[in-house]
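Technical appendix A lists one of the benchmark inputs used to test multi-chain prediction within the project. The record comprises two sequence entries:
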Amino acid sequence: MIYLSRFVWILVLCLMAACGQKSESPSELMAEGRQIGSFRGLVQIERLINDRLYRADRPLMINGILGQDLNFLLGSFTGGTGISQREGANPNPVNVLLWEILMDDTAQMIVGGIKAEELDESFQSAAKELFALNREDDASDELRDFWHIFMRYDAPETEREAWVAAMQSSGSDFKTEENPKRSVLQSLLLHPYFLLEH
Amino acid sequence: MSLRYVLLLVAFSKVVASCHREEKSFPASEVSWEQRAWLDKTVGAILYGKSRVTPEEEKHLLTLSRAEAVDELMNRPEFYDTVLDFNLYFQGSKLEELHSGIGFSPNYQSEVLDSMPALVSAMEVAAGGDYFTLFDWQMPYFVGAKYIEPSRYARDPLKQSEIGRMTVEELQAYHWDQANTALKRIAAAFEGGAALTSVCSEFNDFDAIPSYIASISDLNLPDPFGSFANPSIEVQIKCGALGDVAPDSELRPALAEELSRLQKAHASLPELLGRLPRTVNQIKDFVRISPSSVPLVGDKNREGFSSVMWSQLENSSTNFNRRRAAYVLRTYFCDDLTPINIVAPSDHASDTHGSDAACAACHYKLDPMAGFFKTRGLGGIDFPSDKSDFLIHDDLLRREGKDFEDYLRSWKSPDAAREWNVGYVRSTTDASLNEYGEDLDDLFRIIRKSRESKVCLAKKMASYVLGAEQIYDGSWINHLAEKFHIAAQQGAAPGASSQAFKEVYKSLVLSETFGKADPEEGKCYDYAPGAKPSALPCAVSFIIEKNCASCHRGKGAQKGLDLTTWEDKGQGDMGFSHIEAGSGQPVPAGESLLRIKDRLSSSDSRLQMPLGRAMDPVERATLFKWIDSQLRETP
């Protein structure tokens, strides 16, 4: 199921990124008639994760997961002082795949952080409450809590409700997996409203 | 315990949990989701690196009006990191991260100190001083923490385990001793009568203490040991690194001076290092030092360009500093030199392709701008013509004598009123619109004074806060830039420019565009006070209104072309209202756009529009590019 969900996310993100279409700038990228943005970039995503989920003295470092040589494909300012410019932020099939790999590992690291109690108190508490529930329980409020700490107001309220409904549906990883922490985290880490500028 | 009590306990704990949850997150309150989303976005835009404030702060900020919340956030120290980050963005030196680590290592990246105007002007905003130091050439010196990245010691003779046990002070003392020994060896060789070429080699060996050199360069000191090489480039040249070894009569005093300078610099370092903090996590903690406290190569002041800028934008023997000129035009005037073939230069530097008609459109601005750098050669080193009879380019070509004179003559002015054809050129037909000068001090004086640099500053601020892809109405940008222009006037109050920066930043965060959750990039949301949305696409409406509409408006429009209309011509084609003067027939949309494009790009002053009037080159290029894009969409 994990592998299937990973495939589905790649597919969704590729569709969001107008996978395979040639486009001159992120502003011209369209998905289902809607304009989409570019990736926030590795540093910004790392900063968001640390600011929202981790304790200041125990930061999570994700910039070494893929190796420094690939980070420039994920949206970063390159060129150093003098003439730096943003590169790699325009979604394309390659960087969408790299983000998927990166966020998969990141989800695993956060799961480890929950176990080791390295996380920000409010996130730790929300995670404990959510994952202590039984499958048959109504987890709507706990899911909203979890979403809020992770996503804040990056996405509209309707997106949160759609995510909660998806997690609550009987076939979701959250309801079917023995240990759903990783797939729940993946669903947020790979959420377009989290990964993309808007 | 009976089952009833257990169930009661579970029910009670659920009630407590739900109350607790309501308090700690997404409380159902009178504050809308939109308002909360705006606050989060504002926190991100003002407090560098933060995506939220504490729940208590959030609760308080939500009780304030948006303007009050912005004021309060802009008074926090993190805002000055945002100013620094923007300044680096403005200069084209944006870093992914200002700090060298998250949480555990609060020091700034050493690159921050390489772009001194960005840092100094952010510090000025924090102190309520002069923000326009961003446009200064001569800069004060600031240094950071004495922290050194352990990776700098990769080639060190010390074992990594030993390094791990040493404090920064112990490491620096260790390397100071190593350097001291090397300097004594050089002095002994020089004073002992060794061949001068072997003394040159000894100087090169001094560079074989990389950790020591690194410990200095991390502080970004003002070139106490020559930031590019050891010994200094000038001494290397005399030692024969780029040609013949200089005769002993020149080499000996040069080596003596170099040795003396290094000894003085070396002796001054312990006192300087002792004054530095271990961490610098706010810009106010950077330490200002007097240039005279550290003997410098040539006692130069710190200059406005980063060392990386000098090394990346080379003055080759064929580009005659044009890469540096293009950087200045792009960075400080937002002029990306769109080649639209608008004018032919009356005169031109020799031996260059600029005289080619297709290239002239850029070169009329580029060449005079490059002239500000005319004495700057390899790595930005100044070879002033009154002191030096040669110049070495970045491709190591050495010009001397007549060759050097011919090179400089490329910028000699044919006009008796001034010696050099060096300046910021707005018009090729009316020299009174241009700003002329000779050297980089003059260039930065022009930048500080010009209206274009203020408009460029406002544009880049909008781009930084609202997104690089967003389109803005020109009248709004000019309205914002006017605050900078007023602050730059003579007699403006001290700190007026810092206040202007804050006001413009606040306007951007309070703008309609910023408040939109998902703004359309091709749409304008904000206009100057009194300005109304036009029927024209907002990307060009302001430019047309400013430059064209006085003649091309309404029924009496010149040549039947009404540039204040933008209408559907049928079959989805959009165009201006355009009636053929003789026949009274409508001009097809494509033909109409083509004629406008030709008139914009013509170099014939009888045809070029606007007729007999100067038009900002950046605005001309913007309108030209837009017309061209519309033409591609029109059959």
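The two ends of chain B are 85 Å apart (CA to CA). Chain B has a mean pLDDT of 81. Comparable benchmark entries are summarised in Table A2.
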